[in-house]
TrEMBL record:
The keyword Nucleotide-binding applies. This is ABC transporter ATP-binding protein. InterPro entries: AAA+_ATPase (IPR003593), ABC_transporter-like_ATP-bd (IPR003439), ABC_transporter-like_CS (IPR017871), ABC_transporter_ATP-binding (IPR050763), P-loop_NTPase (IPR027417). Gene3D superfamilies: P-loop containing nucleotide triphosphate hydrolases.
């Protein structure tokens, strides 16, 4: 299937000389939730700005559903909804008026039924006649999403969509984003909340210093880079590990009360049985054991620190 967004050899250098993007190549699949992770200044917002036609690229090309963003700007931009980080919106307008106006900016005929559906889907219907200035920060962010969806885009960019939103509202918005994906909308989000990407994304992209470090299916990324650990609570503290166990790469915690065995994939689980037998042979007993696995945050921090 043809990707809905294709980015080829994209670079951006600002007038100051700052090289924000360096030869970016990226394809976004139709109908997926794609999370773009990266530290501040990594190039996330610049990349989104170029794809959405807000920032001019220095070199390279971007196609949106086959439409080149430079040669066929209107067709490409009409397919995109953008929810920016900033909460600035039409402060003195009502929710209904500002969302309806956004639809008109794309040359779409008035469609009260669609606006009604969007507001109801985003739990904004009871606020439709309220002025924006009276809304909470979380509700204002929902209004930004409603404005972005007003012209029925096929692609939705969410730049830090839940920044400043409380935990309960954040989870509600996650469900809204899943519902959009299920309706066929392709969703690309940037986020500082690693759990947000881990919860929702189909694929993860990591960008740092203007370069794409990695793009991977989330499940595959967790499988390949997620470190698993077996932690054994020892019956008696150890000051050192026996030489007979050196081949396992074991470590002791600070006070010698726990032994930690790290392994990288399911295939090494067979080594656990051998380890336990060797522990018994060495006369090392344990009271309890449990396993842990790296989170996406652990993986992200590790990737970025390696490339910094």
């Amino acid at each position: 299937m043809q990707p809905i967004i294709s980015v080829s050899n994209l670079s951006k250098t600002y007038a100051s000389g700052f090289h924000a993007l360096k030869t970016i190549n990226l394809e976004i699949r139709r109908g997926e939730i794609f999370a773009l992770l990266g530290p501040n200044g990594a190039g996330k917002t610049t990349l989104i700005g170029i794809v959405c036609g807000i920032v001019n690229a220095s070199s390279g090309s971007v196609a949106v559903d086959g439409h080149d963003i430079s040669r066929d700007y209107r067709a490409a931009r009409s397919l995109i909804g953008l929810v920016p980080q900033e909460l600035a919106t039409d402060t003195f307008e009502t929710v209904w008026a500002t969302v309806s106006f956004s639809r008109g900016l794309f040359g779409k005929k008035a469609n009260p039924e669609h606006i009604t559906k969007v507001l109801k889907d985003l739990s904004l219907w009871d606020k439709k006649d309220s002025k924006i200035l009276t809304l909470s920060g979380g509700m204002k962010r929902r209004v930004l999403i409603a404005k972005a969806l007003s012209h029925e885009p096929q692609i939705l960019f969410l730049d830090e969509p839940t920044a400043g939103v409380d935990v309960e509202l954040r989870k509600d918005m996650w469900q809204v984003i899943r519902t959009l994906r299920d309706s066929g909308v392709t969703v690309i989000l940037t986020t500082h909340y690693i759990e947000e990407a881990e919860e929702m994304a189909d694929r993860i992209g990591v960008i740092n210093h203007g370069e794409i470090i990695l793009v991977e299916d989330k499940v595959e990324l967790m499988r390949k880079l997620g470190k698993k650990q077996l932690i054994l609570e020892l019956a008696a503290k150890l000051t050192a590990l026996p030489e007979t166990l050196a081949g396992y790469g074991l470590t002791l915690n600070a006070d010698g009360s726990e032994m930690i065995y790290s392994y990288d994939d399911a295939g090494e689980r067979s080594g656990i049985a051998t380890l336990l037998a060797d522990l018994n042979q060495a006369g090392i007993g344990f009271r309890d054991l449990h396993t842990t696995q790296s989170s996406l945050e652990d993986i992200f921090v590790g990737l970025v620190s390696k490339k910094s």
